[in-house]
Amino acid sequence: MTKYFRSNVDAMASYVPGEQPQRGTQIIKLNSNENPYPPSPAALAVLQNINGEWLRRYPQPFGEEFRQAASKVLGVPSDWIIVGNGSDELLSVVIRACTEPGRQVVYPMPTYVLYRTLAQMQDADITEIPYGEDYILPLEELIAVNGSVTFIASPNSPSGHVVPIDDLRKLASQLSGVLVIDEAYVDFTEESALTLVNEYENVIVIRTLSKGYSLAGLRLGFGVANPKLLHGLFKVKDSYNIDAIACAIGTAAITDQAYKNACVAKIKASRTQLAADLKQLGFQIWDSQTNFLLAQPPAGNAEYLYEKLKEQGILIRYFKQPRLEDKLRITVGTDEQNQALVEALIYLVGTGD
Ligand code: PMP
């Protein structure tokens, strides 16, 4: 089939998402950093009001209703907001608008693997710079490359750490290209770099409703940036990238901050408990400002534990990648789910089987 593809398609490392079992399968799913609680009742109520007329017509091309609601919540003008089919689409829109062969896409590693795939799809040049010990940002190296697009996930996946805003500010001020600050997990931390969009027109902060708002299945994300930057991004997005239902449900969800905050508070408390339980079992745990933990098993047998848990119907994430081969990424679930995981691990770690 190769003859049908562009020359680099065969060589491309396609993005491999976590396993997504069929609905109804009885498993404990702690592999994709989904929220274990249902979406806001206000968001679900919107579903009751959907009628054929909504679906007969094309949706608003820029998700205007959602932009207005997000504008109120974030305190930024609505024309500083771009809406996407999940934040993944917005990452792709930035790559499409800002890169081409000969232009550099740069990011510290390990991080979200999709950055690499998207850059490859655009035939962009890629520079991956290893994070320092304890996830210190390789600031000078990133500045030295001065990419057309620099991606920083903050909080980062799979490490869970937040990149200090002063480092991001320095990057933004020194780079002549675009700095994408991927805040997919921002709902689980107090720290955000959103204010940098007011200071630097080359910064876009990208967020999602998949995590804190429990809407991963809806596919809705948004970016905040100076309209001068958004102008170019709008040119390469699909005409109707947000469907009418996603726009309406997302609007209700982001408006219901109290519900999201209550879910987040529960998840943070469970995160503390799960980290303590895993440390008790001898795991090394990195401080996390997200809804997941990076965990290194005491015997270094991460892949084995991943496989054994999977056999028992508990899915977590294992990345066969430099620096991650001896670690696991575990989404924080409900207390019951976390307890089931810890009990399974007590047996596996204790017996070596
Ligand atoms: N950025 C990071 C760092 C992520 O982990 C994810 C989720 N896999 C995303 C972006 C994409 O999220 P979504 O497309 O669901 O908005």
From TrEMBL:
Gene Ontology terms: biological process: L-histidine biosynthetic process
NCBIfam families found in the cross-reference section: hisC
Subunit record text: Homodimer.
Catalytic activity from the UniProt record: L-histidinol phosphate + 2-oxoglutarate = 3-(imidazol-4-yl)-2-oxopropyl phosphate + L-glutamate
Annotated pathway: Amino-acid biosynthesis; L-histidine biosynthesis; L-histidine from 5-phospho-alpha-D-ribose 1-diphosphate: step 7/9
UniProt GO MF annotations: histidinol-phosphate transaminase activity; pyridoxal phosphate binding
Cofactor: pyridoxal 5'-phosphate
HAMAP family per record: HisC_aminotrans_2 (MF_01023)
Enzyme Commission identifier(s): 2.6.1.9
Cited PROSITE patterns: AA_TRANSFER_CLASS_2 (PS00599)
Key words of the record: Amino-acid biosynthesis, Aminotransferase, Histidine biosynthesis, Pyridoxal phosphate, Transferase
Domain Aminotransferase class I/classII large: from-to ranges: 26-345
Record carries keyword Transferase: yes
Top-level division of the source organism's lineage: Bacteria
Keyword Membrane appears in the UniProt entry: no
Gene behind the chain: hisC
Modified residues (N6-(pyridoxal phosphate)lysine): 211
Name this protein carries in UniProt: Histidinol-phosphate aminotransferase
Family of the protein in this entry: Belongs to the class-II pyridoxal-phosphate-dependent aminotransferase family. Histidinol-phosphate aminotransferase subfamily.
